[in-house]
Write a structure and sequence with these properties.
Largest sheet: 2 strands, antiparallel
CATH class of the largest domain: Mainly Alpha
Number of domains: 2
Oligomer: single chain
Strand content: under 5%
Structural class: mainly alpha
Helix content: 55-70%
Number of helices: 10
Shape: elongated
Length: about 240
């Protein structure tokens, strides 16, 4: 484990700062799924005492980023296929309800602005920018959804969806999931947004539901699973 020294906390050591630094270490892969946290090494590397670090570990455990094992310590959460499906189902429930609010509440100007950003994204994809990163496809996919949900005006949904998406990012990172089929995703986004701009709730919800189901199926495929495998797992549970 190599820790970036830029992560050192220079201001007074408090649990909230330690929590943010530790969360970022999990999300950027400094700490790998299933890895045991060495409190002494981490605390020393980022320049804090073990007290605030332990409080941060406790908080992140409660948020699902870490798991605690008796007499063994804290480990970075390694998600099972069923847990990934559960997160996708939560994401779908939140987004589909938020979309109904967007159709009812979003201003025409806000929707026009989102359409313009989506057009820019489509152009960028066609140019195949050389500085694309492995994590970019998933981040790009999420960006549209997060911007769309933001137009619902519901901060509670935004917060819960952000948390679910962070966990999905963490869960899918080990699969090296880069085959989002970006052009296909953007085309789907355009179709969804067109129906939202027409204020067609039923059509936009149906399209988003199909889009999210396709995204989940793609992820299960990358994991070497299928929807049928998930159904059997649920029945056995």
């Amino acid at each position: 484990m190599t820790i970036d020294r830029s992560a050192v906390i220079t201001r007074p050591s408090i649990p909230s700062q330690a929590e943010e630094v530790l969360r970022q270490m999990i999300l950027d892969g400094t700490l790998s799924p299933g890895e045991r946290l060495n409190e002494v090494t981490i605390a020393d590397s980022i320049g804090i005492s073990r007290g605030p670090l332990r409080e941060a570990i406790k908080r992140l455990s409660g948020q699902g980023y870490l798991t605690m094992e008796t007499h063994r310590g804290a480990f970075v959460k390694a998600y099972t296929p069923q847990e990934i499906v559960d997160l996708y189902e939560l994401r779908s429930a939140l987004e589909l309800y938020a979309l109904r609010l967007v159709v009812e509440r979003a201003s025409n100007q806000d929707l026009d602005d989102l359409a313009a950003r989506l057009a820019e994204e489509s152009d960028r994809i066609r140019r195949h920018e050389a500085n694309a990163t492995a994590s970019e496809p998933y981040a790009s996919e999420l960006d549209f959804h997060q911007q769309l949900v933001a137009l619902s005006g519901n901060q509670a949904i935004r917060a819960q969806l952000s948390d679910a998406n962070h966990k999905l990012f963490l869960a899918l990172r080990p699969t090296k999931r880069t085959e989002i089929r970006k052009e296909h995703a953007v085309a789907s986004h355009v179709e969804i947004l067109d129906k939202v701009r027409e204020r067609d709730i039923d059509a936009s919800v149906d399209m988003l539901s199909a889009h999210l189901a396709d995204s989940m199926s793609n992820s299960l495929s990358v994991l070497g699973l299928s929807d049928q495998d998930n159904a059997r797992t649920s029945e056995e549970g």
